[in-house]
């Protein structure tokens, strides 16, 4: 499998498309949480209402499948979904011959963070650190 490495500019160019998909996921995520809560309430307070329990379970499964399908579409861009709440996307990239991830978190306007492959979200650093050695190399490749 060939991995596409994104520059910051390339990642920011596709970000609006990904954000639109993330917005759709957020809507479905909220509906999913509501259905799960409703189902749990029914299990506690009205176990005999089998039809309603079956309906909420079906809704949960349907929303889960729809969210998974949207995640597959996002990942078809060659990026990785690393979290759902908040929504996190990692863009494969490279800096000085080392594989890294450019990192975007739900609510951020653009790509401004990165981390090494094994560091994860907790290791995020500002992209300005990538340009200390050669400011034009990373942003405009």
UniProtKB/TrEMBL annotation:
InterPro entries xrefs: DUF2203 (IPR018699)
Coiled coil, from the record: 8-42
Keywords: Coiled coil
Name used for this protein in its record: DUF2203 domain-containing protein
Lineage of producing organism: Bacteria, Pseudomonadati, Aquificota, Aquificia, Aquificales
